[in-house]
Amino acid sequence: MAEDCTGFDLIPRYKLEWIGLIRPSLQHFVLSGFNKIGTDQRKIDNPMKRLWFIISVMLVIAACSAKDPAQQTSTGGTAASNGPIISAVASGPADINIQVQGLSGGVAKLIGVYAENRYLADSSAVDANGKFRFANPNGYTPGLFFVLLPDNSNFQLLLDQDQEMNVVTQSGAMAATMQVTGSLDNELMYQSFAFEREQRAKFDPISQRMKQLTPGTPEHTQAKAQFDAEIAKRKGYLDNLQKEHPNSFFTKFKIAGQNPELKEFKNPDGSTDQYAQVHYFRTHMWDNVDFNDERLVRTPVILNKLKRYLTELTVQHPDSLNLAADFLLQKVLNKPEYFKFFANWITLQYEPTKTTLMDPEAVFTHMVQTYFTYERAFWSDSVQVHGLQLRAHEMSASLVGKQGPNVTAKDQNGQTRSLLDSKKPYIVVYMYDPNCDNCAIETPKLAQFYQANKSLVDVFGIVLNTNDQEWKNYIAKNGLQEWTHVYDPTNRAIYATYFVDHTPEIYVLNPDRKIIAKNLKTEQIAEVINRDQSGS
To answer: Which pLDDT score, from 0 to 100, does residue 115 have?
Structure first.
């Protein structure tokens, strides 16, 4: 059965968890196979905590701001959708009368959606007959809502401008028995549920049968024809929905969730060009989304598409991620609600302290320097923007592919040493803390690696968070006298050179003194060097 991104299949995960703190973790795959050491390292940069707090606050502000985004402006870009902005602002009172037959007593909650956040919009006592009411003289912000019942079951409601309706359903079979009067959007939504249940009952056996049949046989051809006929019915259903109810919120929601149709692309030898297929699918992922409709941000559809677009359809490499982010954000530069949502989410998604991407700072600095500017980050104040720009500046010099910056400071003997004075083909920049538990594990490994490869590699050790005697004792205790060591108690020598948020941190510079890898474990250094030498 054809899938979409409306998110109705995600409903069960809300049943047993308190709404509001759900943020599913996502696995990030690194093209080279290398990942960061982990989050159990000694954290050396306390300002990082403040940075991520600022970004998180900015996202919350974006979600909860009372300002009308339609009145905001941003610069540049071409409109991704034509027509007037449809704001996610309630225009009248809400009076939602609900009866769930078979339910008796307790408290029902009305749960709103914004990105990965769920917020409590209202609550109501349920009487002995399963009746309760959500009422608000100002209405609720338009979007998708979950009605969470005392037994932790739930159902959905779409709320737009007209929020006066009556809902009757049966506990244990709510979607199948749902009756809504006074709300076209919800009538259409539950009609759609019924259609999809009917289609699923036909699709599933056909799909199972096709898996058991050999392509090209008469039986497979017949099953494929049946499958295609059901796909055609689904397309006809959606076409009819658009024709009869083009301005319905549910229609906009449902159409926005549709994925592009798969196109056949062939290589010269006749085989399928999967790269071209994925590229087409990714670049057409947003064709059905009306970026003028700000209500969609408060449904699962936009977040689901965004996750798929960036984490499944885009190679998890900074260059690819930055291109994908730019492609999307250029569509919404003059769509404030979408712009601030996409900019915040992408930046948080590739937060350097949480992702396993080798060089997440490359994504972070690109996003901040391009989109979190004084002109564009309209939801933030100048102090926050300055803090983000400063942090991006601190990271920018040590991105993979850049020339390694020089570091000059005193060694343990009081002699001035410079990183780029090394004559060895490769330099390992090792940033460590004598009191770091992970450094106690990694330092002996690196010392052993150096002894086996010292004709090829120099280690430039930069010590942090220590004092002169503790540093010298550490060098002696671990037998590191052959390394080059420096220490600057003020950290001025390393400021805005090699970024570090956890110790130990390992960078590798090649013979051209370009940074070819970072965020490594010792056992990954040899492979990095081998790949650089082979040109792969």
So the answer is: 83
Q: Nearest-CA neighbor of 437 among 10, 38, 25?
A: 38
In terms of DSSP bridges, do strands 94-101 and 163-170 run parallel, antiparallel, or are they unpaired? parallel
Q: Report in angstroms the alpha-carbon separations of 20 from 14, 16, 50, 88, 91.
A: 10, 12, 22, 20, 25
DSSP single-letter state for residue 293: B
With b for 16 or more beta-carbon neighbours within 10 A and e for fewer, the 404-414 pattern comes to bbebebbebee
Q: Taking 90 as the threshold, does the pLDDT of residue 85 lie above it?
A: no
Cβ atoms 97, 167 nearer than 8 A: yes
Residue 7 pLDDT: 59
DSSP states along 131-154: EEEEEETT---SEEEEEE-TTS-E
Nearest-5° Cα angle at 89, 84 to 91: 100
Q: Which residue has the tokens 């004792």?
A: 473
d(CA 520, CA 524) in angstroms, rounded, equals: 6
How many whole angstroms separate alpha carbon 162 and alpha carbon 62? 25
The answer to whether residue 56 scores a pLDDT higher than 50 is no
The pair of three-digit structure tokens given for residue 290, joined into one six-digit string: 């009306």
Phi and psi at residue 46, to the nearest 5°: -60, -35
The answer to whether residue 58 scores a pLDDT higher than 60 is no
* pLDDT 10s digits, 408-419: 999 999 999 999
Helix, strand, or coil (residue 170):
strand
Instruction: Compute the chain's Rg from CA coordinates.
Output: 28
pLDDT digits (tens, 9 = 90+) for 463-492: 999 999 999 999 999 999 999 999 999 999
Instruction: Say if residue 504 is preceded by a cis peptide, omega within 30 of 0.
Output: yes
d(CA 70, CA 490): 47
Give the chain's length: 536
The runs of H, that is alpha helices, within 245-317 are 249-256, 274-283, 300-307
Cβ atoms of 31 and 315 closer than 8 Å? yes
- The DSSP-derived string for 307-325 is HIIIIISS-SSHHHHHHHH
Q: Is the pLDDT of residue 31 over 90?
A: no
